[in-house]
Amino acid sequence: MSEGERKIVDTRGKFAMVVKDGRELNDAEWTGGRILLSNKRLILARSDGKRTVPLKQIQSLEGRNDVNQLVAKVSGYVSLQLSTDDVLLVSAEDPESFERMLYRALLDRKVVLVRHPAVEGGVVTDAEWEKARLKIGEGTVDVAIADGSFVEIDLDDIGSMEANERSVKDEKRRVLEVEHSQDGTSVQTYISGTTRRCSILKSLLRKGESRSEIGVDLTERQDEVLMALYSGVSPFEIPDFLGMDVDEVEEVFDRLIELDVIEEIRTRREVALNARGRNIASEAMNDQ
User: Which DSSP string corresponds to 57-89?
Assistant: First the structure.
């Protein structure tokens, strides 16, 4: 390996090229071999040769690309969109671990601009854009901001994630707007970087967002409780805040826990909205 290069993963698996120079290959098939990942490149080695992919060529990690039934039979693989207009599929022996390590190789210690919290409890703040460094943890995206603060975005706690164009330091840039929770309050963290960096980070954050779909109908009272929690009202203050009996609030909490909209932190009804609940509360507030 070259100077400064370190090995991250050395495993076996299979790989396939399904798009070559922008053209889909309907006859693509899997090839078994060795998979080596370093902090600079990905090497796919088989008995008759190898392919080396510099990490800087990886533009994004996409969803499934089942060009034929043979490819579709493999359940766990990552789909790499390359700058050469090629798409490579890689299926390691432990696909989840390999994918996590690949995200780390691509994103760890990369510099981005962050505005946090850009929105808190549904209210836009006056937070400024700051430089920050990314670190991919076990199920988290960790953001170390230059001012000394630290933001942990739990992938299982992401309520929504949108990619938009915004003015960042007087320049139009791609911005990822991530809704999650902090100390029991819904916040949005804005992250901006190069197009490539945002594209890769976006695919990782989408994994968390997909777990928090709404799909539930609530009563007016249940909506009111959710909106109060979303706005930062303590669960112990809900009865006085909404003019409800304590027993009625307890019944609402029980039902919302059953629906996986809030989670019980400890007994005697300290509760917090989860990602799904924040999505529902946000929609309810928008309908007001």
Answer: GEEEEES----SHHHHT----EEEEETTS-EEE
Whether 169 and 129 have beta carbons less than 8 Å apart is answered as: yes
Q: What is the pLDDT of residues 215-271, one digit of tens each?
A: 567 788 888 888 888 778 888 888 888 888 888 888 888 888 887 777 777 554 577
CATH number (domain holding residue 71):
2.30.29.30
**98 belongs to a structural domain:** no
Give the pair of three-digit tokens for residue 115.
Answer: 């505005």
**12, containing H or E segment:** strand 7-20
CB 133 within 8 A of CB 193: no
Residue 67 structure tokens: 């060009």
Asked which of 34, 58, 92 is the last residue of a domain, the reply is 92
CA distance 185 to 181: 5
Judging by DSSP bridges, how do beta strands 270-273 and 7-20 pair with one another?
Answer: unpaired
Which residues contact residue 48 at a Cβ distance below 8 angstroms, ignoring those fewer than 6 apart? none
CA distances from 61 to 43, 100, 202, 246 (A): 17, 12, 9, 49
Q: Which domain holds residue 168?
A: 111-212
CA 274 – CA 262 distance, rounded (Å)? 5
State how many domains the chain has: 3
Q: What is the pLDDT of residues 13-44, one digit of tens each?
A: 999 999 999 999 989 999 999 999 999 999 99
Task: Pick 63 or 131 by higher pLDDT.
Answer: 131
pLDDT of residue 75: 84
122 and 203 fall within a common domain: yes
pTM value is 0.74
DSSP 110-153: -EEEEEEEEEETTEE--PPPEEEEEEE-SSEEEEEETTS-EEEE
Q: Does 64 reside within a domain? A: yes
